[in-house]
Amino acid sequence: MTHKKHLISEFLRDEDGGATGWNLAWFAVLAAGSGFAIDVSNARNAKEHLTVTAEAASHAGLVALMNTGSTGDARAAAIASVQQNYPSDVFGPVIADSTSDIVVANYNAEESSWSDSGMANAVGVTLRRDESTKNGVSTFLLNWVGLEEWTFSASAATAMAGTQRCSNTEGLFAQGNIQLRSHNGFGTGICLHSDEYVTMSNHNVFDDGAYVSMPDLSLCEKCDDDDKNPGIVDAAYETKYIMPDIADWIEQTELSFMGSGDSAIKDAFFEGRALDRDLSSLSELDYDTRYLERGSVVEISATEFYLMEDVPEGLTYNVSCAVSATSTGTSNGNGRGKSNGNGNGNGKNKSSSDVTSVSSLDFSNAPLKDLAVITDCPVDFSSEADLLGVMIVTSSDSGISGSSGTTIGASNYSCDPLDRVTIMTNADVHMAAKFLATNLTLVIDGAIHLASGGSGNSDHYGVGIHTSGDIDVTTHHNYYSCGNSNTEVAPVMGVIRHVSAD
Predict the structure, then answer these.
(1) Residue in 392, 256, 377 with CA at minimum distance from that of residue 311
(2) Which superkingdom heads the taxonomic lineage of this protein's source (predicted)?
(3) For the chain, what is the domain count?
């Protein structure tokens, strides 16, 4: 017995082979740590890959949205991008519901908020490896302690936001070139942007806070000489903005007001405006006004429109020079009768054969306030035109014009955004000498030529001119800012930004 105790004691004191046991213990610890690290690393890499994929998908969706204006195209482009960068046959599905996980909506940059109302300008994408897709990331060692998979999601959003430097209501924005002659002035907050280049003669003045931009500043003639054009050196900078297709913008605006397109532009225009309580001038033309609502479309000939000495507010007038006076009176507004829009007709046929046919609009018959005019008529503004808070879209090849001394825009010289006048045409525009504009947006699928402002200068306040062609400004025009922010009814010079998806 004593011998056995001695052997046991010797064995316990013997250190031979002890390192092996110790190493085995440390190996187990290190193996566990390595396995945990592998699981964590796999999860982190998968999350990063998913995040980058969501960012790329939101960007692809936004580009499609800007190109076509279609939410369906935006969503399809985002899905295609996900499939390209995170193929489901390799990684499994990561979109649970394409409608809720890929959001195409309006993003308000000032409030950092999302809304289904307003024009869609952003795409948000959420990708999931969780219970909703039944596609978690499997674990290795952690599976032994009951954690079979990691679950997570990744979100990203991309928006086309207006520039923080320039408002689309204040300046000259050409997809062609901008040519400035001499003796023109540009105040603080006024932006000039050409998608091609800017040229100028001498004696143009740029106040501090005025900006002149183009993709390649080296193409700007006389942008480097403050002596010849005071302020130009600080005003000029190089940039490339995203500019929407002007022809498409005008078409979408017309469709919006007529009730056959996205209502966002029409809704934005009529927000804050009300239907006139006095509709008697329409009743006198035998229109049934009982079912009219704000924004309702009244189809009317140019002749009958000209007959009205009081044009009710809060409506959309589809004024036609192409139809005879005897075919007027139907409507696609919100009333009852014949319809091809977002409502039903509100009138009946009326003969006006005793009235001389009107083949163009000069808006001299009555003051126009808080209404929209969609027309196929040429527009030649009379010096008696009195406009306030009006939208005019003409599809005539003759476009718009104005005689010498014509004032277009808010007739009371107000800078109130609700008083702003917006005019759109798909033809070139030539404005005669001494043309004045206040609180005015011009959207032109073509070029514009502004004749001399005269020796006394033409002072314009809060004017935004958007063209698909060139802008030619002769002499003696001064542009000053109203200080208004972007309007949804005019094209926006955009930049792509990653924004909060929440």
Answers:
(1) 392
(2) Bacteria
(3) 2
Q: Indicate whether 261 and 131 sit together in one domain.
A: no
- Report the candidate in 437, 494, 430, 441 with the shortest Cα–Cα distance to residue 460: 437
Q: What is the pLDDT of residues 337-357, one digit of tens each?
A: 333 333 333 333 444 444 567
CA distance 66 to 77: 12
Give residue 388's domain range: 171-274+313-321+358-493
Sign of CA dihedral 56, 59, 64, 69: positive
How many other β-carbons are positioned within 10 Å of the β-carbon of residue 453? Answer: 22
The answer to whether residue 114 is domain-embedded is yes
Helix/strand/coil for 257: helix
Could you tell me the strand order of the sheet in which 198-200 lies?
198-200, 178-180, 471-473, 448-450, 429-431, 400-402, 379-381
Calculate the dihedral angle through the C-alpha atoms of 207, 211, 216, 218, rounding to the nearest 10 degrees: 0
User: What value, to the nearest 5°, has the Cα angle with vertex 306 and ends 304 and 311?
Assistant: 90
**Domain stop point among 162, 192, 220:** 162
Task: Report yes or no on whether pTM surpasses 0.85.
Answer: no
Residue-wise pLDDT tens digits, 273-325: 999 999 999 999 999 999 999 999 999 999 999 999 899 999 999 999 986 44
Residues 233-253 pLDDT 10s: 999 999 988 888 999 999 999
Q: Which amino acid is at 133?
A: T
413 and 268 co-located in one domain: yes
Q: Are residues 86 and 194 in the same domain?
A: no
